[in-house]
Amino acid sequence: MIKIFSYFIVILNFGKLILAKEEEEEWDFVGSHGSLMFLSFGIMIPIGIFISRYLKIYKWWFPIHIFLQSSALAFMLTGYIIMLTKIGFTLETNHAKVGFATILLMVITYVGGIISHLFYDPKRKSAPIFPDRLHWYSGRLIYLLSQVTLILGMRFVFAKEIIIIYSFCILIFLCVPLIIELFIFQKTKHRKSRTRKDIQEEEHQ
């Protein structure tokens, strides 16, 4: 009887080891997928967008922009492949639906950036709608969609408090370019009013 009980205990412990290993593998999958997606959409893409929008006065903006967005694309595809190998293709959750739409838009926008670079005309007076402006605005849309995707993904892993803190950080980050845009708008408006005033003074002289 004691031997049977001992065997039973051994079997239970072995079962616990198997479950622990499965949970560890599950966390490795979730951690790898989430980390790669966060590096791509939470760090590289927003920095790349910020540089291309506000730091074009520096010569180094373009190679850094390409490096960041290319790395982001590589991390994103790697993270997506990890997910596919583990659970296969699925659109059952909102995280999967928004994430898949974000990935498609990311690939399209990346191709649009290549086209924009190949057909760039240094003599042009303004940027054309296609592909330049579409590339700009689709990139910003990617950032917004990706943050929604990240938050939806966090709901599977993290506590509600962590998600709230992350969402608050995103709002703060979004306020930075908004303040810069308002400053640029006011500065441009002031410059135009001064130019108009100078023209009127010249006409009266």
Automatic annotation (TrEMBL):
What the entry lists under InterPro entries is as follows:
CYB561D1/2, Cyt_b561/ferric_Rdtase_TM
Cleaved signal peptide residues:
1-20
Gene3D superfamilies assigned to the protein according to its UniProt record, in alphabetical order: 1.20.120.1770
Q: Which sequence ranges are marked TM in the entry?
A: 36-55, 62-83, 98-120, 141-158, 164-185
| Superkingdom of origin organism | Eukaryota
Q: Does the keyword Isomerase apply?
A: no
**One Pfam family cited in the UniProt record for this chain:** Cytochrom_B561
Q: Which GO terms describe its molecular function?
A: heme binding; metal ion binding; transmembrane monodehydroascorbate reductase activity
For this entry, the protein name equals Cytochrome b561 / ferric reductase transmembrane domain-containing protein
Q: Which UniProt keywords apply?
A: Electron transport, Heme, Iron, Membrane, Metal-binding, Signal, Transmembrane, Transmembrane helix, Transport
Q: Which organism is it from?
A: Tieghemostelium lacteum (Slime mold)
Necessary cofactors: heme b
Major localization class: membrane
The UniProt record lists the Cytochrome b561 domain at 1-191
- Tell me the compartments it is located in: Membrane
Say yes or no: keyword Transport present. Answer: yes
Task: Tell me what topology the record assigns in the membrane.
Answer: Multi-pass membrane protein
Q: Extract one GO cellular component term from the record.
A: membrane
